[in-house]
Automatic annotation (TrEMBL):
InterPro entries: UPF0473 (IPR009711). This is UPF0473 protein A7312_14955. It holds the Pfam family DUF1292. The lineage of its organism: Bacteria, Bacillati, Bacillota, Bacilli, Bacillales. HAMAP family: UPF0473. It comes from Paenibacillus polymyxa (Bacillus polymyxa). Belongs to the UPF0473 family. It comes from the Bacteria.
Length: 100
């Protein structure tokens, strides 16, 4: 039987991304979203490293294959603008909800 956990936050989703030298770094998934009119899926992640700049947020297009996730760097300017606009809209809506 499922129990409601009012006031409790979910565990953050953590993924590991290899850097250029093959070292895996830990990132928290901030949000996942799809853009209307597109089948592409995107995720925003932030480093878990306490020494990282709090404003560091990275965006990737991703595909799921079973339990595996493949990340793709967004290189197209038009695609990046859509992702940035969508992310900013979510942030603004979240700030408005927090202000109520």
């Amino acid at each position: 039987m499922a129990e409601n956990q009012v006031g409790m936050e979910e565990e953050p989703e953590i993924i590991y991304i290899a850097d250029d030298e093959g070292n895996e770094e830990e990132f928290e998934v901030i949000m996942k979203f799809e853009v209307d009119g597109s089948e592409a899926k995107y995720m925003m992640v932030a480093p878990v490293d306490p020494e990282a700049d709090e404003s560091d947020v990275y965006a990737f297009r991703y595909e799921e294959e079973g339990d595996d996730i493949k990340l793709f760097v967004i290189q197209d300017d038009a695609e990046w603008e859509i992702v940035e606009e969508t992310f900013n809209t979510f942030v603004e809506e979240d700030e408005e909800e927090d202000g109520k």
